[in-house]
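Bumping with the actual sequence this time:
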Amino acid sequence: MINLAINDTLHEFEADPDMPLLWALRDHIGLTGTKFGCGAALCGACTVHVDGEPVRSCQMPIGDLKGRKVTTIEGARDKVALAVKSAWQRLDVVQCGYCQSGQIMSAIGLLQQNKKPTDADIDAAMDGNVCRCATYVRIRAAIHAAAQDLA
């Protein structure tokens, strides 16, 4: 039995400890905001926070998460998360939307660590989050807008 704290709720799993967190979230709990993209931690669509840090859930075994706190897009509700989500909506960032939960989780992680990121800071933090619709300019603008809202 594996117990995981996900979005401030304790969940019990009878599963292989090597099962990726992504599948525990989607298939066992029904939290489908976290997306499967590449399965190799290269695209960022599956980004969640573990103890406040962005991680790729497709490569994070649930057995490694004992005693750690997992936050998904559904549970991201703090001040920074709300500012990022609001900026995303105001600036109409989303095109197809598939990658956006991972993009948002990475942006939240950045703004929790760096309240006034430069373009270079944003590019570095968002590196590895792939958007096939190429909304990168809007993503950067939304991160700057969220930072301004938080100032």
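The tokens above came from a reply further down the thread. The first helix runs from residue 21 to 29.
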